[in-house]
Specification:
By secondary structure, the protein is α/β, with parallel strands linked by helices. Strand 7, helix 8 and strand 8 form a beta-alpha-beta unit. The N and C termini lie far apart (44 Å).
Length: 340
């Protein structure tokens, strides 16, 4: 699928100030204090994804990556903010309107075994989204399911098998085929290789890469594996405690990461280059939880560049000297660095 210059400037997905909070407890402490604790899984995320682009979302466990993926599809209801798909604001759609829109937005789940009905044959698992959206007849859906099996590299013999009769890598391919069944334009891939053996991750990534090119897909790719992200991403968004701390092209973020958290993540990633071995530097200390977050910039207790203002005021996500957008008081903005 080719995208004209004017169309490529119009985002497929636009997220504005998205917040997803989870009330916690309701026990004795909450009753005594009169305060209910809240986990801020997402706390003001703003981003755009353009046609044919793969935006990778990275960060430590608990940063809000999966919540972001589920919330943009409204599998999880947001607390506030907006999500627009092709100009339609999903957060305002009624159930039936949202169901029709979901035909064009699908998800590849992290664990292939927990995301399928193990009593169904693989053919029926793939055909189910077509049945839900009223696509074709029962016979045509079965034929299409076999076509999708072959598209993801599995032959028609797999159609009659059950989930327990295939490997994890093969079942993840079935999950990809199911996500493609309604011919979606936008996919959220939530850690699609995390539960797979190293030996089959490369095959799965090559499959996704080829399908994206062949079908003109737009992806939000959620992962903690930086090697995988480097292979698939066009742009990278770094999430920390529910907020984007850095976002830019893959080249900008990998070549010259600006936020101290991004620098720590990239330096801690394993590298086959012997010159880089022994230089890993993981983020300092433990990540705070989403309930008791530090004041100001949430990263300041772990940051080697922290200054007093970091403890008092959360930094604005703005364009910096290297080109990407960064939320950090210690990194000069592009405006501040430009000559008068």
């Amino acid at each position: 699928m080719t995208v004209s210059g004017s169309e490529s400037d119009v985002p497929v997905l636009s997220v504005r100030d998205l917040r997803t909070h989870f009330p916690m407890g309701g026990g004795l402490l909450s009753r005594l204090t009169g305060k209910r604790r809240v986990a801020h899984a997402l706390d003001g995320v703003t981003l755009d994804i353009r046609p044919g682009e793969t935006l990778a979302v990275i960060g430590e466990s608990g940063s809000g990556k999966s919540t972001l993926g589920r919330t943009v599809l409204r599998l999880q209801e947001p607390t506030s903010g907006t999500v627009s798909f092709r100009g339609d604001e999903l957060t305002r759609l009624r159930r039936e309107e949202l169901r029709r829109k979901r035909r064009h937005m699908q998800m590849i789940f992290q664990n292939p075994y927990s995301s399928v009905n193990r009593r169904n044959r693989l053919r029926d698992i793939i055909a189910e989204p077509m049945h839900v959206h009223g696509i074709g007849s029962a016979e045509s859906r079965g034929e299409r399911a076999i076509e999708l099996l072959e598209l993801v590299g599995l032959n028609s013999d797999f159609a009659r098998r059950y989930p327990h009769e295939v490997s994890g890598g093969q079942l993840q391919r079935v999950g990809i085929a199911r996500a493609l069944a309604t011919e979606p334009e936008f996919l959220v891939a939530d850690e699609p290789t995390a539960s797979l053996d190293v030996s089959v991750r490369a095959n799965t990534m090559n499959l996704l890469h080829d399908l994206k090119q062949q079908l003109g897909l737009t992806l939000m790719f959620i992962s903690h594996d930086l090697a995988v992200v480097s292979y698939v991403a066009d742009r990278i968004a770094v999430l920390y405690l529910g907020r984007i701390v850095e976002i830019g092209t893959k080249e900008e973020v990998e070549r010259a990461p600006q936020h101290p958290y991004t620098q720590a993540l990239l330096s801690a990633a394993p590298s086959p280059d012997p010159r880089r071995r022994g230089k890993a530097s993981a983020p300092l200390g433990e990540a705070p939880n989403a309930i008791d977050r530090p004041s100001g910039c949430h990263y300041h207790p772990r940051c080697p560049l922290a200054v007093p203002v970091c403890r008092e005021k959360y930094p604005v996500l703005e364009r910096k000297v290297n080109g990407q957008q960064v939320a950090c008081h210690a990194v000069p903005s592009a405006d501040a660095a430009s000559p008068a």
